[in-house]
Amino acid sequence: MLDWGLRLTIMLTLPAALSLGLIAVPLLATFFQGGAFGAQDVLMTRNALAGYSVGLTGMLLVKVLAPAFYARQDIRTPVKIGIITLIATQIMNLVFIGLLKHYGYAQHAGLALATGLGACINSAILFYLLRKRGIFQPEPGWLKFIVKILLALLVLGLVLWFGMGTEQHWLTTHGWSRIIHLTWLVALGLVAYFAALAILGFRLRDFSKRGAS
After folding, report:
1. At what angle do helices 108-132 and 56-70 cross, to 10 degrees?
2. Above 70 in pLDDT, residue 24?
3. Residue 135, exposed/middle/buried by CB under 10 A (0-12, 13-18, 19+)?
4. Spatial separation of the C-alpha atoms in residues 50 and 116, rounded to whole Å
5. How confident is the prediction for the chain on average, in pLDDT?
6. Confidence grade of residue 209 (pLDDT, cut at 50, 70, 90)
7. Is the pLDDT higher at 212 or at 131?
8. What is the pLDDT of residues 132-168, one digit of tens each?
9. How many CB atoms lie within 10 A of CB 171?
10. What is the DSSP letter of 207?
């Protein structure tokens, strides 16, 4: 079940994270730009959204990994790791804000990036301890699985990158023009990603709860 959950989470959240980072401006401009929320606000929010997208997979992997400890009546370990993650996040906040200020970038992006990386650290430590303690033994085929996911992500990234056009286009167009463009861009990205997975040999039956049997 744990192996199944990890694979499913990675397969679904990595493309979501990549998409959030790549088409942050189209999303924000379509849903929020207008009135007091101008083009500059879209660009500033884009920086934060890109930072959060880094940790999307990590945040959800924690939800898969932590219950493995709870199932063994071990509540302390996830709490301890959470405290370590909190401390690491605060340290990264200070570091990133200082670096971004020094190089003239928006400092709030550092807060988002630190939060995202903190989630990745949390999930990485949980995974490490599960392996070290012999609680989780990955099933065969992980390397091939990751390679296929990366290839599908490459296809998705290229489709979104060329399909969205320039950021200036999204900041200057309005109304239905944005909505229609964003709709077909997201649909095209979905089709491209899952078509790539299908070509690479992924099938829906592979993600039935095989670990539950």
Report:
1. 30
2. yes
3. middle
4. 9
5. 90
6. low
7. 131
8. 999 989 888 899 999 999 999 999 999 999 999 998 9
9. 18
10. G
Q: For residue 206, what is the enclosing H or E element?
A: none
Task: Return the H-helix or E-strand segment holding 23.
Answer: none
Contact indicator for 32, 170 with CB cutoff of 8 Å: no
Per-position DSSP letters for 30-91, written without gaps between them: HHH-BTTB-HHHHHHHHHHHHHHHHTHHHHHHHHHHHHHHHTTT--HHHHHHHHHHHHHHHH
Cα 184 to the center of its chain, rounded Å: 21
pTM: 0.87
> What is the sign, positive or negative, of the torsion defined by CA atoms of 128, 132, 137, 140?
positive
213's CB contacts (< 8 A; 6+ apart) are: none
Alpha carbon distance 109, 114 (integer Å): 9
Name the one residue in this structure whose structure tokens are 């079940």.
1
**Number of domains making up the chain:** 1
pLDDT: which is higher, 101 or 173: 173
Domain that holds residue 173: 2-212
199-to-2, 49, 51, 52, 80 alpha-carbon distances in Å: 26, 31, 31, 30, 43
The per-residue pLDDT for 213 is 39
Percent of the chain with pLDDT over 90: 68
